[in-house]
Amino acid sequence: MSIWSKLIGIKKTEDRNNIIGNKTISVPCSATNYAIVDVEVGLKDHKIHDIGALKYDDTTFHKTSKEKLFIFLNNIDYICGHNIIHHDAKYLFTNKTCRWILVDTLYVSPLLFPERPYHRLVKDDKLISEQMNNPVNDCKKAKDLLLDEIARWNSLPEKKRILFASLLKDKKEFEGFLSMVSAKYIHEGIPELIKELYTGKICHHADLDMLIEQYPCGLAYALALIETTDYRSITPGWVLYNYPEVEFIVKLLRHTNCQEGCGYCHTQLDVLYNLKAFFGYERFRTYEGEPLQERAAQAAVKGKSLLAIFPTGGGKSLTFQLPALMAGHSVHGLTVIISPLQSLMKDQVDNLADRGITDAVTINGMLDPITRALSIQRVQDGEASLLYISPEMLRSKTIEKILVARHVVRFVIDEAHCFSSWGQDFRVDYLYIGKFIRKYQQKKKCKNPIPVSCFTATAKQKVIQDICDYFKQTLDLNLELFASTASRTNLHYSVIHVESDNDKYLKLRELVAESDCPTIVYVSRTKRTKELAVKLTRDGYKALPFNGKMEADEKIANQDAFMNDQVHIIVATSAFGMGVDKKDVGLVVHYDISDSLENYVQEAGRAGRDPGLSARCYVLYSDNDLDKHFILLNQTKLSISEIQQVWKAVKNLTRQRMKVNCSALEIARQAGWDDSVSDIETRVRTALAALEQSGYLVRGNNVPHVYATGITVKNMDEARERISASVLFGSDEIEKAIRIIKSLISQKHIAKAQDSEAESRIDYLADILGLSKREVISVVERMRQEGILADSKDISAYLQDIGDSERKSQILLERFAKLEQYILNHIPDGSLRISCKQLNENAVNDGINTSKEKDIRTLLYFLTVKGYTRKKEDAVRNMEISRQADLESTIRRFEKRLEISRFTVEWLYKLASDAEKENTPGKAIQFSVVELLNRIKSSPQSLFGGLDDIQLEDVEEALLYLSKIGALKLEGGFLVLYNAMNIQRIKDNKSRYKQDDYRMLNEFYKLKIQQVHIVGEYANLMVKDYHAALQYVQDYFQMDYRKFVTKYFKGDRISEIQRNLTPQKYKQLFGQLSKRQMEIISDKDSRCIVVGAGPGSGKTRVLIHKLASLLLLEDVKHEQLLMLTFSRVAATEFKQRLMELIGNAAHFVEIKTFHSYCFDLLGRIGNLEDAKNVVAKAAEMINQGEVEPNKIGKTVLVIDEAQDMGAEEHALVKALMTDNEEMRVIAVGDDDQNIYEFRGSDSDYMYRLAQESGSTFVEMTENYRSARQPVDFANGFLKTINKRIKSTPIISMRKEKGWVEVIRHHSTYMYQPLVENLLQHKDKGTLCVLTQTNEEAVILIALLRKHGINSKLVQSMDGLRFWNMAEMRYFLRYLDKRIKTPLITEELWEEAKHATFSIYDRSLSLTYVKRCVEQFEQTNKTKYFSDFKEFVFESSVEDFCDTSGTDVVVSTIHKAKGREFDDVYMLISDNYVKDAHLMRRYYVGITRAKNRLFIHTNGDCFNHLSANLYLIDQQQYDMPEEIILQLSHKDVNLGFFKERKQEVLALRGGDSLIYNDFFLYSSSTDKPIAKLSSRMQGTLSEWEQRGYKVKSASVRFVVAWKPKDAQKNEPETAVLLADLVLSM
User: Fold this and answer.
1) What is the C-alpha separation between 359 and 369, in angstroms, rounded?
2) Which of 678, 685, 641, 645 is nearest to 662 (CA)?
3) Between these two residues, 262 and 743, which has the higher pLDDT value?
């Protein structure tokens, strides 16, 4: 008997009015007399496009005319359809009343098929279909569904039918169906009927009358859901959307404890009963008898919001898992758990699965697309009742979408202290949680707020307050507090004081050896986990490492090995153990103390989880442990200046439009951050979150759309055929394409749903199909190309400058092409090891003069991403690059891309100029990849340009390339993949991120610093007094924080704990400084600090300590600090002294000379010869925005010897300041010591810095160097110098009087009296003779030696370059020939030293090279060849004069600047113009003296000054009998050396030569090897007339030389520079 005849057989013949209560139609209708109708309506025009109908006897109708449809339906009683009432009817009966009874199959299907797997023909509110737009086909489906529904209705027990009919009568969505099945209903007794039918399934005392009256439909759906046997069945999202009250009703009936108590509530809502049912436990855990777990779980079941403070191992997870599982079963609800730790989520899901509970799912960043899709599927299908996600995931549209379709019963927030800046781990992204929940509640039209549970192990008052306030303010929730006062009694704490790292390890080994039990060793640094584990294992105690940075599988393997007792010891960072529940850990050792008491108590609390076990917790504490935390804190902290840099980057990126899509890395680069900064993306996200919190911007999610409206195939079969036949799809892609199109087609019916967009978004398709976004986009693009999807112009291009005659985009493209071709041609078949700077240097030298380091980086990044090359990079930016294919095919691919790029730019310019003619300039040009592809294919170029085989990927690659090099700004389309964030700027472009905005983060960091001090105090207390220490911990957690601090940190100590330095370290760094010096160091606010530092005032010291303070106390990260000096020597000295002060951290600070920094900006390798206008060039490049932001994105600039700045240096400083509005400048110099005016330096530039707004000018006039008399003398002398900046006189800080003696000679020559005076006064101290010229210095040296005095000359000579010295050249060439990588290996370095030192062992000039090598070793732990070359190029010979161990140093005043000596003798001959410049030079000489100053002069500059002794000497003196002439380049005939290179190279410094008639001969071969220049010949003739003859000659230097105008490849000549000794 068919269903139909059954139905007709049982058709009731009573008057149907009586049954349905329907008074409108009195004509009897026949249930068999029906038709199904389906209307296709255009999404955009809302007009009817197509109508299909199907009668009960299978006759069909398929036309677009309504009139004809009404004729077809003439003798029909019922019109049926899926969603007919709210969709089709609106279009069919626009103006005429409907005379038919409408039966809607949509609304009854969840009532009749509430159980999983639901009905096979329905998905959400749509019929499942493989056909596109075929209404007749849809009618057939709807008919099958209708028949199934009628059959299901008739199979229900009669009482249920009566109940549903009684609830739903008169509701238009249901009345047609009820009429069709001739349902009966009752008016009274409905509540009793419900209780009878649902006894034991709902609370006996629920207020049914109210529900029946107010929400009859919702109640019906709720009862249908309650009826299901599989608790994973859920009410479809569309029902919840239309009847939001369903969730509220289910909760009321099934999850609300009644006061009176009934059978249902006693069991189903009883936590103990369920604890046994789900977990098999008989009872909850108690703490010292407190039933905390039970009370918190009970509160959650009652629907309260709560904050629970559980000690670690306190079983907190059970406290939320149990209520979540109960709610899952009773109301089919979902509990969302938000936790910051991805590994923790996985652990919890796994632990539940081990118990056979598969209701938990996690969706986080660590999952691969397929697992992720599965998890999403499980949440959607109702299989999950617990969902674990990270706060970051709340920003995903997919998550939002799947949550809206589920009944979320509670949000659980783990690690809730992250809300509070007083917690030990404040996270800005937590502050988004409240916003999300509020939005979610509005979307769902919730009747009551969704409850929240917060969990934390930290019980500090202020943190609790913050969490409660947050939820009160954002969601108006009051959290009930559950806290345990009990402390664990089975743990024994002790702190062991150790001296050194070695002691620490020995102690650890001893502890491990004593106790044979599971052990956790905590360390603070990732690296150390491996080191210690290896050491322990080597010593026979098997240990494994664990840290957050390890690969996921290694992490899991090690954790499992520890959990399963295969290994007893795990060495871990604090990431380990969050949620790890191992009961029998008997020993926890803190190898490094934790950074806060909270964390310490938490980590130690991982021992002895089993209350019956007594466990021991040790801290191995050494005094510098805290310093490590401070250093780490400094590195990880997000400073206000970094947020300002990100804000500046956002302002730059949003200059044209307020909204942009970009990736975290792009922002970081724009902000000038180094790619090598660790966790760079997290830092950018945190900075953005902080900016969002302060209202500067809004961060959304980017949403690439591929609309399903563009489907051009009729049905799945046609799609399958066309995809399979297409050449565009590989075999693995065919399957993906079919899945995607199927998903799109079945979503075509979405048109009737609420949000027609969400489903067809790329990320959503990717999420539900388990593909990567890349795959989805690639397939969609190909389906467009194949015409299966209509093409849509989804890319917008913004060109550089549409109207200009010279087209920037084209120029840029050609510039990059030239450089790229150069790079590709220079990668050998193996690999190329080089730094970017060196590569750029090579490119420029090879004639690509537009090359820039920034461009090279951009290109290499692109080439690596697109698989042309592989690139590895070490910490100091040295790269190893190799090609992925052979050169020929790589170049072919490059040329093809270039062709496409040229075409694209050309075409877009054309589109742009067309747009301009139509008067819409400046707008984006809209186009699609497929359109561009077809253009290229049809262009004449493609035939002969080799572009006939061009694919979609090629076009995409070219577009990506154009966007990366900045020729176009593209948005939309596939680029979405690279740009994960959507940012909208709210504040205007002028606004700056201020201190006030930073308050919350700042508070948090300040507290972190205090927490480190507090934990240190605990360790010290533990060593002294165990009970006091326990009391201290208790007070910390229970007292008001401020009271706690006042109790334990009295007096000065209150300021001590504000600093991120231990008191000992602070004293060591700053304890010895004067008040004025401290003033400069503690100024943290001035934009410019300009210090006028007098001689001996400790300028270098102030700078070094200021650098230390910036790094350690002022939150400046080393990569954000730049110090510029005027000489390589100064740079090296600062580096060395900073290392002595703060240790290895000094290695990372950039201390450079102006020149080398500018070469760096230009991406060149510096040397003094090319240094002419490099500073000006660099300044110009900065102003034009052509320098990589990370090279100039500094927050602090320190300038040494600021008085030596010239116009170029000042321009550079100004350019840096303009580029970086928040940058601070600290400039130190002495305007009185500006003696380089001939180089263009002028102290006025230093003065100008002091005039900048926000500047402070400080005078340092306390002289710690010189005794009183020399200082008074210098002050008197200063009065003769005009145009000074400083006004205060210098004060000597020494007690000694000192001595000044001026001897005024009448003689022209004063050499002899000076030397006699020196012999008479010579004492133990250091002694220096200062002259004005090098010639004078050389003559004095000879005279002193004649008197048997050990003296040394500070060598200086015109035109002599250190790197041209033969010895230095040999060393460099030795390295250059053998070096394989940018790094010089130790072996090679030692080899080069050995080779050079043995070949030149008899040369007197070898000492310079030795000193150079030594100094480089001291300041460079790792030796890079490029650094060494730069070091040598920037050095001069006098930098390496070793004056130690000599009795007398002889030097020109210029070379003595910055040095100091006990006694100074000055030789001042009166044949110079007495201008301010000369006076300043004399002043420099005068201020070199510490104790005694002797001036020999034949002029009267010093007449009027007060000296201890003023003598006049009238005697005439001769020139000394023996003088030395040092020959420079000007003194020899350079051309003469050309033929004699080998002979010259055979000579060594100090070898004796034979002089004869203006020629020099080698003493070993008697061949002429040098000829004097005609100028020198003249000089010698003059000396001869005065009775002097050349007595002997010797080699001073052998140097490399070639003429300035020489060709690049011309070989150098070896030049000999000799000393000639002349005597009477």
Assistant:
1) 20
2) 685
3) 262
Q: 968-972 and 795-799 as β-strands: parallel, antiparallel, unpaired?
A: antiparallel
Both structure tokens of 319:
């406290």
Rounded to 5°, angle at Cα 1229 from 1228 and 1231: 145
Q: How far is C-alpha 795 from the chain's CA centre?
A: 28
Question: Are residues 579 and 347 in contact, defined by beta-carbon separation less than 8 angstroms?
Answer: yes
Q: Nearest to residue 181, comparing CAs of 117, 105, 100, 93? A: 105
| 1124 strand-pairing partners | 1152, 1199
Q: What is the pLDDT of residues 1004-1034, one digit of tens each?
A: 888 889 999 999 999 999 888 888 998 998 8
Q: How many helices (H) and strands (E) does the chain have?
A: 65, 50
1376, two tokens: 């250059």
Q: How confident is the model at residue 738 (pLDDT cuts 50, 70, 90)?
A: confident
Query: Which amino acid is it at 307?
Result: L
Question: Closest Cα partner for 1133 from 1155, 1151, 1154?
Answer: 1151
* Predicted confidence band of residue 754 (pLDDT cuts 50, 70, 90): very low
- The rounded distance, in Å, linking the Cα atoms of 802 and 909 is 7
The per-residue DSSP string of 1054-1080 comes to HHHTTSSS-HHHHHHHHTT--HHHHHH
**Beta-ladder partners of 347:** none
Q: Which residues of 1461-1491 are buried (b: 16+ CB within 10 A; e: fewer)?
A: bebbbbbbbeeeeeebebbbbbbbbbbbbbb
Q: Which helix (H) or strand (E) holds 1225?
A: strand 1224-1229
The number of residues making up the chain comes to 1624
Q: Please give the Cα distance from 588 to 570 (Å, whole number).
A: 10
Is residue 708's pLDDT more than 60? no
* Whole-number pLDDT of residue 411: 97
Distance between CA atoms of residues 1464 and 1485, nearest Å: 8
Q: H-type helices in 1322-1385, by residue range?
A: 1334-1346, 1366-1378
pLDDT tens per residue across span 1423-1440: 888 889 889 988 888 888
Coil/strand/helix, residue 1331: strand
Helices of type H across 708-759 = 716-725, 731-746
- Indicate the pairing of strand 1522-1526 with strand 1552-1556: unpaired
Strands (E), 27-115: 34-41, 48-55, 60-63, 78-81, 101-104
Distance, in Å, from the CA atom of 1437 to the CA atom of 1352, rounded to the nearest integer, reads 14
- Cβ within 8 Å of residue 1624, ≥6 positions away: 1521, 1522, 1587, 1588
Instruction: At 1209, list the tokens.
Output: 């240096």
pTM of the entire predicted model: 0.75
Contact 235, 406 (CB under 8 A): no
Closest to 789 (Cα-Cα) out of 726, 744, 736, 756: 744
pLDDT value, residue 605: 78
Checking DSSP bridges between strand 491-497 and strand 615-621, what pairing results, if any? Answer: parallel
Tokens at residue 96, please?
A: 């005429």
Q: How far apart are CA 1441 and CA 1354, in angstroms?
A: 6
Question: What is the b/e burial string over 311-340, where b = at least 16 CB atoms within 10 angstroms of the residue's CB?
Answer: bbbbbbbbbbbbbbbbbbbbbbbbbbbbbb
User: DSSP assignment of 1413-1467, as one string?
Assistant: HHHHHHH-SS-BHHHHHHHHHT--GGGG---TT-SEEEEEHHHHTT--EEEEEEE
| Alpha helices (H) in 580-715, listed in sequence order | 597-604, 625-636, 640-653, 664-670, 680-693
DSSP bridge pairs for 1227: 1090, 1199
Any idea which of 491-505, 663-677, 1503-1517, 1526-1540 has the lowest mean pLDDT? Answer: 663-677
**According to the model, what pLDDT value does residue 1302 have?**
95
